[in-house]
Amino acid sequence: MLSVSGWLDLQMGGKTIPLHNREFVFNHTSKDHTTYESARRALYLPIVRNNLYNMLEQFDYPDPTMPTGSRNSTVIAPQALIMMNSPVVMECGARLAARLSSLPDDDRRVREIYALLYNRAPSEREKERVLAAVREFSRSGKPESAWSVMCQALLAANEFIYLR
């Protein structure tokens, strides 16, 4: 998501936990200083055993308190909900829409979104559905965010999330 939206920070190295000693320890009596707001790869996110990042947890990240020989792979409703409601996904959708705003027409935008997200051209039916949804959302009073919402929906699609 970060890469296709143009938001990915490609800097290598650095601290995964930019906090002072022991500030990353979290329990029911302490303030949680851990932040997962980062435009870097997940490799650079902190893994705090008792406060795992919700996005990782929902997408089958193994239990960090014990060794894991293999990872589960599930498709469950909370995964769809997090893709619809996560601030990170919404921001990626907005940035992807902004990235495509310089394209000359809506037809070209749809083709570019499908090329970026799915590495293929959209079918005629898919293109018509995307354009109809954008028009409908624009009519509902939010024309400035129509493409942002469409990009978020396409980011949340199974075709983007799961490898075949």
Index terms:
164 residues, mainly alpha, elongated
Order of helices and strands: HHHHHHHH
Uncertain spans? none
* Average residue pLDDT: 82
Strand content: under 5%
Radius of gyration: 18 Å
> Biggest sheet: strands, sense, closure?
none
Supply the number of helical segments.
8
Q: How many β strands by DSSP?
A: 0
**What is the multimeric organization of the chains shown?**
single chain
**C-alpha end-to-end distance:** 17 Å
The global form is elongated
Helix content: 40-55%
What structural category do the secondary elements indicate?
A: mainly alpha
Brief sketch in words of this structure:
The chain has 164 residues and is mainly α.
Question: What report would you give on this structure?
Answer:
With 164 residues, the protein is mainly α. The protein has a domain at 77-161. Helix content is 46%, strand content 0%. It is built from eight helices and no strands. Helix 4 (87-100) packs across helix 7 (146-155) and helix 6 (124-139) crosses helix 7.
